[in-house]
Write a structure and sequence with these properties.
Shape: globular
Helix content: 40-55%
Strand content: 15-25%
Protein name: AraC family transcriptional regulator
CATH topology of the largest domain: Jelly Rolls
Keywords: DNA-binding, Transcription, Transcription regulation
Number of strands: 10
Number of domains: 2
Radius of gyration: 18 Å
GO molecular function, one term: sequence-specific DNA binding
Order of helices and strands: EEEEEEEEEHEHHHHHHHHHH
Number of helices: 11
CATH class of the largest domain: Mainly Beta
Largest sheet: 6 strands, antiparallel
Organism: Enemella evansiae
Domain HTH araC/xylS-type: 167-255
Length: 270
C-alpha cells in the first residue's frame, strides 16, 4: 500500500485518536469494503476520486464526498472502491470533533456527511489534494488542524469527557461510571446520546469490540480474545463481529482491503 503515516502532533494529543494515514490502493472495481465501527469519528480526504460510502443495511444508497466525516455508529458502512482508493484517513476523539467542527459528535450519530456541511471550506481539501507528495499533504492538513485547535471555542464538558474515558476502559460498568461523574444512570444515558451520539452501553460495546478485533487481527485466537476481553464465549464474540462488521470473523479477516487503523505503521506511530 503506497502512502504514509504521520504520528500525532503534540498539539493534537487528545484530539486525534491515532496517527493520520495516507493510502493509495488499486482494487477490483467491483470491490465493496465493509467499514468497521470504532470509538472515534472517521474523517477521510479523498484525492483520486470522491469516496463513495453508504450503509450495509441500505446497500442501494450511497453518498460521494471529497471530504467525508462519519460519526459513531453500530452498523457497518459500505465503501464502493471503484478500482482505486487514495486519500488520508484520521480518527477524531469527541473533544477533537468539537474542536475542529464546533459541534458535538452526537450531531452525526449513525450518519456521515461532507465536511462542507460542517463549515469546512472546500478550499481546505483542494489545497491538500493539490500537493504532490505525502509529506506536504500531511503538513498542510496538520497545520489546518492545529489552527482550528488553537481557535477552539467548543469543548466537551468535563463530566462527559471523564465519562467517555471511563466507558472506553475494559470492564466498564454503566452504574459505576454514572456514580463516578455524579449522575443518575438516566442522566448519563441522555447526556451521552446528546454529546456522542450513542448511549453508554453502546459506547462501551464498540470500545470493547474494537480492542478485541484489533487483537485478533494481530494474531490472537478468537477464543482467547473472547476470554481476554470479557465476552461470554467465542460464539458471543463471533455474533458481535458479524453484527458490527457485516461479515463473520473468517470472512472479515480474509478481506484483502486493509483496515487502515490496523496497519502496523499506525500502531508504531501512536
Amino acid at each position: 500500500m503506497a502512502g504514509g503515516v504521520r504520528p500525532v502532533h503534540p498539539g493534537l494529543r487528545g484530539l486525534l485518536a491515532g496517527p493520520m494515514v495516507g493510502y493509495d490502493l488499486i482494487t477490483d472495481p467491483r470491490a465493496v469494503h465493509f467499514g468497521v465501527p470504532s470509538p472515534g469519528a472517521t474523517v477521510i480526504l479523498a484525492f483520486a476520486e470522491p469516496i463513495d460510502v453508504g450503509w450495509a443495511h441500505d446497500p442501494g444508497r450511497s453518498e460521494q464526498n471529497w471530504f467525508m466525516v462519519a460519526g459513531l455508529h453500530t452498523r457497518p458502512s459500505l465503501v464502493h472502491t471503484h478500482g482505486r482508493q487514495c486519500g488520508i484517513q484520521l480518527s477524531l476523539t469527541p473533544q477533537g470533533f468539537r474542536s475542529f467542527f464546533g459541534t458535538p459528535l452526537g450531531a452525526l450519530a449513525n450518519d456521515l456527511t461532507g465536511a462542507a456541511e460542517l463549515g469546512v471550506p472546500t478550499a481546505v481539501h483542494d489545497r491538500i489534494a493539490g500537493a504532490t507528495d505525502w509529506e506536504t499533504r500531511f503538513d498542510l492538513l496538520e497545520a489546518q488542524l492545529l489552527s482550528r485547535a488553537g481557535d477552539r471555542v467548543s469543548t466537551v464538558p468535563a463530566e462527559l469527557d471523564h465519562a467517555w474515558h471511563l466507558l472506553g476502559r475494559p470492564g466498564a460498568r454503566i452504574e459505576a461510571v454514572a456514580a463516578e461523574v455524579g449522575w443518575s444512570r438516566r442522566q448519563l444515558q441522555n447526556r451521552c446520546r446528546q454529546e456522542f451520539g450513542l448511549p453508554p452501553k453502546q459506547l462501551a460495546r464498540v470500545a470493547r469490540f474494537d480492542r478485541a478485533r484489533g487483537a485478533v487481527r494481530a494474531g490472537l485466537a478468537l477464543a482467547e480474545a473472547a476470554y481476554r476481553f470479557g465476552f461470554s464465549d467465542q460464539a458471543h464474540l463471533s455474533r458481535e463481529w458479524s453484527e458490527l462488521c457485516g461479515l463473520s470473523p473468517r470472512r472479515s479477516l480474509a478481506d484483502d482491503f486493509p483496515i487502515l487503523q490496523d496497519d502496523p505503521r499506525t500502531r508504531e506511530a501512536r
